[in-house]
Amino acid sequence: MKLGVNIDHTATLRQARGGVDPDPVAAAILATLAGADSVVCHLREDRRHLQDRDLHILRQVVHTRLNLEMAATQEMLEVALMIKPEVVTLVPERREERTTEGGLDVSSQIGKLKDAVETLNASGIEVSLFINPKISVVREAAKTGAQAVELHTGFYADTRDEAGRDSAREDVRSAAIAATKLGFFVAAGHGLNYHNVASIAAIPEIQELNIGHSIIARAVMVGLPKAVEEMRYLMER
Ligand code: PXP
Questions:
Q1: pLDDT at 96
Q2: Which atom of ligand 1 is nearest to the CA of 6?
Q3: 169 with 156: CB under 8 angstroms?
Q4: How far apart are CA 185 and CA 118, in angstroms?
Q5: Whose CA is nearest to atom 3 of ligand 1?
Q6: Active centre residues (catalytic)
Q7: d(C-alpha 68, C-alpha 116), whole Å
Q8: Nearest C-alpha to atom 12 of ligand 1 is from which residue?
Q9: How far is the CA of 229 from the centre of ligand 1 (A)?
Q10: Ligand 1 mean position to 150 CA, how many Å?
Q11: Beta-strand relationship, 66-70 and 38-42
């Protein structure tokens, strides 16, 4: 199973001070050295975390696979055609949301998504659609010509009671089976962390997990002791 590491939240931390640290480009290189199969990033319309500069440099330094999450807007299509990531994941985007909240509403915009897929494919860019884990949505996604789907695991991740969580996992599993039958490459992601990843990783039809927040959050914690030691050393020297 492949792991795509989403590095957006290193940029969130940088933007909190408007400076240069930490650099998401460095995070992408370190994640790759540590074994990530791809680097995932989301260039949002409001540029709240990742910046255009980051994407340009990421394209130069990521030699595995660069997966650009973006809305299917004219502006973003132009960016994608210039950057040429290996994969574009089309996601819904609402300015006021804290993070991508739901999957794409595929049925109401099949024509628009189909056009975006055609445009991107013509430049050699594969397209994945971020969708809710429902068989009916998977079937709609098949009408767009996309190569992959990414199943939204946020509902699974956010459900606290065991029965609800089992049922949300079952939704992901049945959507993954349906997507595989339709010939899609199947990815999943959103809200996956060190406690809940195992049962999603155990679904054989899922070929890739895209994980961001929990990995960056853990990096802050496991890196903190060393960071404090290094500061103490400099102070005392
Ligand atoms: N996949 C998609 C399509 C996303 O939008 C995000 C969040 O940017 C992720 C995966 C990663 O989610 P998380 O940061 O919760 O791991």
A1: 67
A2: 11
A3: yes
A4: 17
A5: 130
A6: 42, 69, 190
A7: 14
A8: 190
A9: 32
A10: 10
A11: parallel
Token pair 């640290």 is found at 21
Sign of CA dihedral 218, 222, 225, 230: negative
Q: Using alpha carbons only, how large is the chain's radius of gyration in Å?
A: 18
Atom of ligand 1 nearest to the CA of 187: 1
Would you write out the chain's pLDDT as a tens digit for each of its 237 residues?
999 999 999 999 999 999 999 999 999 999 999 999 999 999 999 999 999 999 999 999 999 999 999 999 999 999 999 999 999 999 998 766 777 778 999 999 999 999 999 999 999 999 999 999 999 999 999 999 999 999 999 999 999 999 999 999 999 999 999 999 999 999 999 999 999 999 999 999 999 999 999 999 999 999 999 999 999 999 999
Q: How far apart are CA 106 and CA 137, in angstroms?
A: 7
Ligand 1 site, CB within 6 A? 6, 8, 42, 69, 89, 91, 99-100, 130, 150, 189-192, 210-214
At the second CATH level, the architecture of 2-236 is Alpha-Beta Barrel (3.20)
Domain boundaries, given as residue ranges, for the chain: 2-236
